[in-house]
């Protein structure tokens, strides 16, 4: 059990006066999950973002293609989670989903869908409106 204590301490919230009310700073970025003790899902060597529009063909783009895209950008910012923790100065590199949607998906649609369902490799899903 002592092997878990340093990891648990790294995730234990710290109070900080310069954060939004109710937020606590974390020293490590937690993995988003409903069960942090469960191992993360297996990720393919070449993950693919796939979109199946209500009309038309499935569109897919690999992780490497996304990173090489002219839409890719990097930023450093704090992440404030609704569960009251903050991970400071996180370096993000990626493509804004809205930018990719409007450049790759929207031009082929005759009508914009009201929502999109997103599913992760771990089975989690979210609905974007």
Structural classification? alpha+beta
Number of domains: 1
Strand order of the largest sheet: 1-5-4
Number of helices: 3
Strands, total number: 7
Task: Tell me the strand percentage band.
Answer: 25-35%
Q: What best-fitting shape do the alpha-carbon axes yield?
A: globular
Mean pLDDT: 83
Radius of gyration: 18 Å
Order of helices and strands: HEEEHEEHEE
State the share of residues found in helices, binned by percent: 10-25%
Major β-sheet profile: 3 strands, mixed
Q: Which regions have little confidence, pLDDT < 50, spanning 5+ residues?
A: none
Spatial gap, N to C terminus: 43 Å
Report on this model:
By secondary structure, the protein is an alpha+beta fold. It has one domain (22-28, 42-128). It is 17% helix and 29% strand. The chain has 3 helices and 7 strands, in the order αβββαββαββ. It has helices spanning 5-11, 63-68, 97-105, and strands spanning 24-26, 48-51, 59-62, 73-80, 85-94, 116-119, 125-128. The protein has a 3-stranded mixed β-sheet, with no helix packed on it. It has a two-stranded antiparallel ribbon with strand order 2-3. The protein is globular. The mean pLDDT is 83.
Question: What key phrases describe this protein's structure?
Answer:
single chain, 129 residues, three-stranded mixed sheet, two-stranded antiparallel ribbon
